[in-house]
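Justification of resources, computational component.

The compute hours requested in this renewal are based largely on the per-chain cost of generating structure records like the one below. Each record pairs the submitted sequence with a full structure-token output. That output is archived, and it is also reused by downstream analysis tasks.
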Amino acid sequence: MPTKEQTPLRIYLAGPEVFFPNAVEQGEIKKRMCAEFGFEGVYPLDNCIDGAAALSPAELARRISLGNEALMRTCDLVIANCTPFRSVSMDSGTAFEIGFMRALGRPVLGYSNNAADFAARVRTVHSNGLHGWDGESAAADIEDFGLAENLMIAVAISESGIPLVMRDVPDNRALSDLNGFRDCLEYLRQRGQYLFSTQPNSAR
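The structure output for this chain reads:
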């Protein structure tokens, strides 16, 4: 998987890496890893915006968003970095991209470099007083299904045939460690044909 008769699977590489100081380099590393497995990685920053410097912030944001949607439509699946980013939960843009690909009927794989489940992370942050919650937020229920993320994210991934890959890594590599990403690539190499057979809207 893929067979010789097919072009390489195109994988949209979703995650907060686009905000890193070395964002381009991080994307190139992931794309090289994809190539090692016989796949083609497609990184959000491949979305080149002509004349970006002359655009207003609002128009630039619009073109980035629409351009990334166009990139995703050209891809066969997404592998998303679901590691908590600046909060107890994953990057919100990455969450949107998971939903977008799920709505297209494309497989969704993901990994997190934090092995604690979602509810445990929320309770830990609240008990440590790390966030000044308002009264309504403090009184609200904490979603607790023993899942790695909000159920809409976790189920979107598990319905593609693989649970979200979870592992703990050193704090200084919490976002950039790629062992979970490699696990996703290995799964895709071993069981990709089955994975695509379960997606009704997949062209594969």
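The two ends are 10 Å apart (CA to CA). The helical segments are 23-36, 57-73, 92-103, 118-127, 135-139, 151-158, 179-197.
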